[in-house]
Structure formats: C-alpha cells, structure tokens
Amino acid sequence: MLAGFQGLALAALGARLYYLSVVNGEKYRLRADKNRISIRLIAPERGEIFDRNGEKLATNTQDLRVLLVPEQTDQLQPTLKKVQEIIEIDDRRLARIERRIKRQRQFVPVTLAQGLDWQTFSRLNVEIPRLPGVQTDAGLSRLYPGGNSIAHLIGYMSSPDEEDVAKSPLYQLPGFKVGRQGLERRYEPQLRGASGTRRVEVNSVGREIRELPPREEAARGGDLHLTLDMALQRYVVEQLGEEAAGVVVLDVASGDVLAMASSPGYDPNEFTRGISNANWQSLLKDPRSPLLNKSVSGQYPPGSTIKMIVALAALEQGLISADSTYFCNGKHRLGNHTFHCWQNRGHGKMDMMEAVANSCDVYFYKVAEKLDIDLIADMAKRFGLGATFDIGVDGEKEGLVPTRSWKRIYQQQSWQLGETLNVAIGQGAMLATPLQLAVMTARLATGMAVVPRLVNGDQDVAAFFPTLDVNPFHLATVQRTMAMVMEPGGTAHDYARKKSAIAQAGKTGTAQVRRITLEERAGDGGVIDNAELPWKSRDHALFVGYAPVETPRVAVSVVVQHGGGGSSVAAPLARKIMDFTLAEKPKSPTPAGQV
C-alpha cells in the first residue's frame, strides 16, 4: 500500500510537471522571458530644419552631459552638493531634479546638466571616482545657428513635463527633449522620428545585466524645408536693430514667406540648455515683448495702409471715380465733432489718386460718409484682413475687421457714422497683423487671392490662386496710386534714391495709440514730435509695398511699434528690404510635396 501511494504521488507529480512543461510550456516560457527580458527604447535622432537654399536653421550637435543613477549613491544630497561645486545648478533646477528622482525608478538615470564645455566635462570625469552614482555621457542636443533671428518661427526644445511623460515612455529617456513653440512644436511627430528598441536581460528589480539580440535601431526624424531665405531674414533683423517691430516679406507669385521677423527676439539655444530664472524674468519684464511674435500675434491699427481698400470699396460701389475731387482744409466736421487731417493746414483740392499718394485723411472722411462700414469690411476680408493662414507658427491672431453686427453682438450698441470715418483711415476698432498686411499687399499687387506658406509641401506652389472679385480697372487705378506714393510728391518718396533703382509701390501709415489734444495739434503742420513722448505713447509706424511696379515679385509689410511716422521710419526700412530681396534673387524652393 505504501508503495502504491508513493507510485500515485510520483505519477501525479509527473503529470503536473508534464502539464506545466509540455502542455503550457510556451505560456510559462513567455512569462519567464517577460520577467527576465526588458524592452528598452532607443532615442531617435531629430530631423533638421532648412531654409529654401539648404542652410540649416535647426540641427543636432554633440551634447556633453552629466547623469545621476539614484540607486548607486548612498547619500543623494552630499553628492549633488559636490556636483554643484563643479558645475552651476541653480536651486530651481535642483528642485526639479529632486522631484524627478522621487517619481521614477531608482535605477533610471536623471540628467543633472547638459551642454557642458569640454573643460568642465573633463573635470567631472576626473572627479567621477569620488561621485558615486554620477555618470558622464555624450549625446545629441538641438542647435539653432540663426539664434534670435528665427526664434519666433522655429521655437525651441525643452525637457518634457509630467503631462508629456504620461503620453509616451520615450520622454522618460535621459536628455530627451520635446518641441516647444513654433515649428518645433507643430511638427513634433514628424521631426521626432520613431524610437528603436533593444532587448536587455534584467534582474528581479529591473536592473540591466546584459543586452540580447536582436536590436532595432531608431528611425531618424524627417527634415523640414522652409520657404524662408535666411540671408534675407538676417538682413531684416539687422535692419530692425533693437526696435519693437514685425516684418513680413512674401513672394507674390507663390505666397512663399521669404522673411518673417519679430524684434527684439530671444535665443532659443538658451531655452534648450535651460534658461536661468534671471534671464526668464528679464524677457517677461521687457516692455518690447521679446517673447511675442509680432509678425503674426501683434495686432495694430493699420493706419493709412488701409486707404487702398477703402478706395477700392468706394470705386466698386460707384461712389467715386479716380477723378472725384474733394477739398481738404485740414479738418472735417461731423455733427459736433471735428475730424482732423494729419496735415493741419490741409492739402487743398485732391482727386482720389492724389489723396492716396498724399495720404489725405479729409478725403477719406468724405468718402466714408457715403460708404457703409459693411462694404469696407467686405473688401478688407477679400484682401486677407481678419483672416488666419495657419502657416505653422504659434499665436496667429485674426486681427479685427469691425462690422455693424460685430458691434451689436460684442458691445450691444449700434454702429455710428463717426466710427466709419475712423475706420476709413485705419484707426478705431480695426486691427491687423503684419502678416495680414503683407497678404493684403500681395493681393493688391497681383489681383490674386495669394495665400502665404512657410513650409514646403503645405501648399502646392504650382496651384493657381483664384482671381479676386474686383474690377481690374479699379485695381489698376489703386496700383497706380501706390506707385505715386513712392514718386515725387508722395509720402514715401526718397529724393536720394537713384532713378535707375527698381521702381517700388507702397503706402505709408501712422497709427495713433492715444487721443491727441488740440494743444498738441498746434504748430506748423500739426506735427507732433514722437521722440519727446514716452515710448508707449508714440505712434506706430507702418509701411506696405511691393516691387517691381510693372511685374511684382515681392510684397513687404513693416510695423514698427511706437516707432513714430510711417514715412520717416517704416518706409526707409521697407525700401532697403525690397531692394535687398530683389538683388538676392531667392532660389526656387524645394519642390512641392517634399518636406
């Protein structure tokens, strides 16, 4: 009986072993491998960003950094203090490091610092034996050769936050960065690429012992090719200097953004390395708003640059012709309110073309009395005002094209005729961005519904822009007035300019940011010296233009925030930019579809 029981026990044990090792062998083998083998991600190399001529705007460079493996150090705080004696780690950064150490597994490395110079990196390597858990590493970091000249377009890279880490395990890799702002953020999935994998044997707590084949390499991110001409971009930024300004240059045939500058800028490389609190506060407190992309986010009264739109609206409605004349004595009375012309002594008798060339406000006050605000709004929208174009950068604003319904909905008030008079000279409620003004100018130059693009492949360059629903004769009349602005007697004529220079067309604008008193208007010509006013009380200086006059190729808009007069400040800048653009003859962009 005892032998029988032993036999049954052995049989049961054998059956159980057979069940586990043969019947369910594959199942338990997979479970064992899952406990023994861990899949680790390999960070992909980020794609680069190029301008239209192949110049690198965002690339990757060697990044010397120092890491800490928490489980390999017995005393965390003393170790961090010793590292701080060699490299600078501010308290804010240190607190962030300590939070990350607490929330992740102790054998996962944490980045202490990156972007080290070779001398500091060497000192750390010498001290490594006395710094338990500290490791040095050479990886890749983002580099922006153009610095602050392209920051508002490209954006920058920074460490992933807790929300990012929750989205993907890739963001947990030491030194991995995520795109912030601009094109880096918008095209993050494409630029980032696909992670690779490697199989490693680990012990019971997840520590790596050895790597096992096979290894799947990471797929490099895709490159991004822009329509931007970096030589022109640098020139524009150089010309702006320290002014608070936004400039956009467009190819009128394709809509390519050749330059889009916002001044002052900031260095995106500083954000990639980790900006100090002092520098961050300096950017926040700067009244010129260096973090704001003024080209697409800055909303300004368009001033007299809107007068071509008002003239077109009146011409289309048959309210005036090119020969219609009004007399300007420097002021226009509506009810008990007096509207003034910028020229206190008046311009005298003017027809429509002379009124644009001399920027006569009184002429347009008189036209506005006959022209409904909704007709002005309709024409403005046809030419791109009040629209967004989604070119890939952050913060693009719609501006504001006021209508009767807009005021009724948002202010619960009826529209007043006096408000139409203000809008007719680009003041009052109307607002526009430099990008919208550049689009407006390109459409005025071509008669086509030009749409801007910054990234090749976002729009087919061979696509035919539809013709605008505007009488060609009326458009040609307005184009002639813009040419007259740059000729003798016009508000933007440069007497020092060579007669052989490329002919340009344009329109100046000066937008007030406050109400001017009668005392301030007193004096010869009623000119107020902006230089004597506080910076924030000075007028905005604007200019829009295109060139050459006969066969337009480029359109430009310039807005200098609190810069003063459009003819004295913005127009000279625009002339230089148009001349440089045409002299440079930007190369053709990458074929449509290649990104």
Provide a descriptive summary of the structure in words:
- There is one protein chain.
- This protein is an alpha+beta fold and 595 residues long.
- The chain folds into 2 domains: 186 residues, Penicillin-binding protein 2a (Domain 2), CATH 3.90.1310.10; 355 residues, DD-peptidase/beta-lactamase superfamily (Beta-lactamase, 3-Layer(aba) Sandwich), CATH 3.40.710.10.
- Helix content is 36%, strand content 19%.
- The strands form 6 sheets. Strands 2, 3, 4, 5 and 10 form a 5-stranded mixed beta sheet that branches.
- Helix 10 packs antiparallel against helix 22 and helix 15 packs across helix 18.
- The longest helix has 22 residues.
> Averaged pLDDT, please?
85
Q: First CA to last CA: what distance?
A: 83 Å
Number of domains: 2
CATH architecture of the largest domain: 3-Layer(aba) Sandwich
Which stretches are low in confidence, meaning pLDDT under 50 for 5 or more residues running?
A: 521-526, 590-595
Sheet/helix structural class: alpha+beta
Largest sheet: 5 strands, mixed
What is the CATH T-level topology of the largest domain?
Beta-lactamase
The percent range for helix content is 25-40%
Query: What's the gyration radius in Å?
Result: 32 Å
Shape: elongated
Beta-strand content bin: 15-25%
